[in-house]
Amino acid sequence: MDNRALWVVALMVGCGGASGDPTGDTGAATGEGSSGPTSMTTPTSGASEGPGPGDDTTLCASQAEGRYFPAGSVWYQDASQSPVAADSAAITAWMVEASPPNGWGTGTMRIDFSITAVDAPAGTMKRAYQTDPDYYYTPDCDVAPIPLPPGGVVEDYPQDPPPQGSFDGYDCSGYADGADCHMIVVSRSEQRLYEVYHATLAGEQFTAGCLALWDTAKVYDAAGRGQQCTSADAAGFPIAPLLFSAEEIEAGTIDHAIRFILPNDMIREKQYVHPATHGTNTSGPATAIPYGGHMRLRADYPIETLGPGAQVIARALQKYGMYMADGGNIALTAQSDVLGCASWDAVGVDSFALESLKATDFEVIDHGPTTEVTYDCTRTPIAE
Rounded CA gap, 255 and 252, in Å? Predict the structure, then answer.
């Protein structure tokens, strides 16, 4: 089948727990996750330099076609010269001690490919849904009809055979026990990003947990969607702009930061730092990185020792870094190629492409003091 003929719906990775989820480790079942000085310019809310309504016709659902948010967004800032946090060396050394040999959730740095990105072309029919009370949190979550093009899929598709019951396209009912079931839809024409935690469309029955509706024409300030508010990821920021794709590897550049996750006991206990707005009931010590923590691959790391595709990822990690977004095991999150215009096999990147990278090959960037997690979300939902 020609993938370009598919209607692409952007589904994003690893929502690791909202205000009502004390663990934040929802990715464990599927193998993923889930004020003061700052090192980067804090963007101004509502800045006007962002992209206008985009082209929905290419249908690759990748930032190789253009960034999802305005250039002033934190995900797109060059962090190669940003100041290092005073406790950087202590954090990275503790990570290696806590999870030898290299300091990540599985011991070595792995890449997860389970989250699918899909573009919703202009005019795509929107569907209302019933909220799932087990995964819906107020006032954190939005409620709005979601554009669902034919042929889209949820996180972890395909699985053959599914672990239980049905698993077909948008139907995630076969993963009812413990799966994140992320559904992420990018609508460039209406400048909206729909990211849903725990969604499934089984026949005509559409249910969803927490929808985070993002205005992609806006540069969000330090408050994000609201302090102490979750999103489809436990840290409270969007998933889509942090996913890297096979199309970007094929093009030779990743122009944004990357999402990474760690187990709950490797995340600082109930603390987060900008750009995160939320955390969960984590249990790591003061030497652990908090939600929102920003790590940058050292400039002196010999990236020429890596494979060609892995070098593209490593250069992005040196320039933009990676943000701690959720609780789970497999460190880095790439975008599934199931609906893409390039494949991971073709660009030579597999789950172990960066397994040689140690936590001590990274530096933690200073984003100011941490905030204690209280779950006291205050926000004003955006218009649909």
Answer: 10
Lowest-confidence segment of 26-30, 70-74, 168-172, 369-373 by average pLDDT:
26-30
DSSP three-state, residue 265: helix
Q: Is 329 inside any structural domain?
A: yes
Instruction: Give how many domains the chain has, as a whole number.
Output: 1
Strands 258-262 and 322-327: parallel
CB 332 within 8 A of CB 351: no
pTM of the model: 0.86
pLDDT per residue as tens digits for the range 175-219: 656 678 899 999 999 999 999 999 999 888 999 999 999 999 999
The residue type at 77: Q
CA dist 215 → 16, 46, 96 (Å): 22, 9, 38
Q: What is the pLDDT of residues 260-292, one digit of tens each?
A: 999 999 999 999 999 999 999 999 999 999 999
Burial class of residue 209 in the structure, from the number of CB atoms within 10 Å of its CB (0-12 exposed, 13-18 middle, 19+ buried): buried
Structural domain contains residue 72 = yes
Domain that holds residue 178: 3-43+68-372
Residue 349: CA atoms inside 13 Å, Cβ hemisphere, count? Answer: 30
Q: Considering the domain boundaries, does residue 63 fall inside one? A: no
Distances (CA, A) of 361 to 204, 315, 317: 49, 13, 11
**How far apart (Å, rounded) are the C-alpha atoms in residues 126 and 379?**
24
Task: Classify residue 53: in a domain, yes or no.
Answer: no
Which residue from 62, 381, 50, 41 is spatially nearest to 216, judged by alpha carbons? 50
Q: Which residues pair with 262 in a beta bridge?
A: 327
